[in-house]
Specification:
eight-stranded mixed sheet; 13 strands; binds ligand MTE; 24% helix; five-stranded mixed sheet; single chain; Sulfite Oxidase, Chain A, domain 2; alpha+beta
């Protein structure tokens, strides 16, 4: 992902005039990185035209049911693009790295630990989680803060169904998700020296309980490939993609807002909420438009929608809040 900042600029320093100059330098650095990203994508698409990517699916078929919460009317992004254009920094910083490097992620046995503000700490085995509720096919738009997007047919059930099994205390105002981290398996994690592991993300309790927030086990009707966050990840379709933590091993309930990876990196740029919002720019990109991955060049560019198009369902969560301040 290109949203990291050079390690020599702690966000706490961006106050003085001197620090402001360094901030402008960072903008230049990131603009260069963005241009490099676009060039890399163009080269990738050209490469595909010359020698198209063939992807053998390695997932296990999941038994699924249709969902009334699915997004209709949009062309699905191909399985090949969803599984070869990834952000999973533990396995490298380039989009093609996770599909090359994540093969060693040990997805069985796998447990998810629940702790913090709960009646009693619990541990769930992945096979128990897979059977907890019927697995639904849910197509969602997926919008990264790097201004690219996809349309992905996920498989899972509402996170709220899982949270009900966790018995959170009334003081549980937030939920934190921690990803698997083993530096022997995820040898590439050090490539962005600014990040402290494990990857952490979080939601306010009402966001976590919203029916659209998906505890996700698969895509295209099969178990998640490792590079997409096997065996279980979160998907929050109205937020930038970095809010959707992959390969989760701990769910922690807390009374206070938990620390989160990209917010810790650059809190002035990547807010805790990070709702998709075309009216609030993020360095170095305007968020007004996005590139839909996999479409022909002349169809890729599209207008970004408030809350990624899920306004009717989620706007009430933020009633009365200034979304420029709470970005
Ligand atoms: N989770 C972990 N553990 N590590 C990561 O680097 N990247 C995030 C998010 N979850 C990330 C992560 C970002 S920036 C995005 S855009 C999405 O995963 C990408 O999901 P995808 O590769 O399935 O499209």
């Amino acid at each position: 992902m290109l949203i990291g900042k050079p390690p020599d600029i702690p966000s706490s320093e961006i106050t003085s005039r001197d620090a402001h100059l360094r901030f402008l330098n960072r903008r230049r650095f990131l603009k260069g990185a963005a241009a490099a990203g676009v060039a890399a994508l163009a080269a990738d698409r050209l490469g595909q035209l010359i020698s198209p990517r063939t992807t053998v699916r390695a997932g296990t078929k999941l038994q699924t049911v249709p969902s009334p919460l699915t997004t209709t009317g949009e062309q699905l992004t191909s399985y090949a693009d969803i599984t070869h254009y990834n952000n999973f920094y533990e396995f490298g910083v380039d989009k093609g790295d996770p599909s090359k490097n994540a093969g060693g992620l040990p997805t069985r046995p796998w447990t998810v630990k629940v702790d913090g503000k709960v009646v009693k700490p619990l541990t769930f085995d992945i096979d128990t989680l897979l059977k907890l509720r019927p697995l639904e096919d849910r197509v969602y738009r997926h919008r990264c803060v790097e201004a690219w997007s996809m349309v992905i047919p996920w498989v899972g059930y509402s996170l709220s169904e899982f949270i009900k099994q966790c018995n959170p205390l009334p003081s549980a105002n937030y939920v934190q998700f921690l990803s698997y981290y083993d530096r022997h398996v995820e040898k590439w994690a050090g490539q962005d020296p600014g990040i402290s592991w494990p990857y952490s993300e979080g939601l306010r309790m009402d966001e976590a309980m919203h029916p659209l927030t998906l505890l996700t086990f698969g895509l295209y009707g099969e178990t998640l490939p490792n590079q997409d966050g096997a065996p279980v990840r979160i998907v929050v379709p109205w937020k930038y993609g970095f809010k959707s933590a992959k390969s989760i091993v701990t769910v922690r309930f807390s009374d206070k807002q938990p620390p989160t990876t990209w917010n810790d990196q650059a809190s002035d740029e990547y807010g805790f909420y990070s709702n998709v919002n075309p009216n609030v720019d993020r360095v170095p990109w305007s968020q007004k438009t996005e590139r839909r991955i996999g479409l022909p060049f002349y169809q890729q560019n599209r207008t970004t929608l408030m809350f990624n198009g899920y306004t009717d369902q989620v706007a009430s969560l933020y009633a009365g809040m200034d979304l420029r301040k709470n970005y």
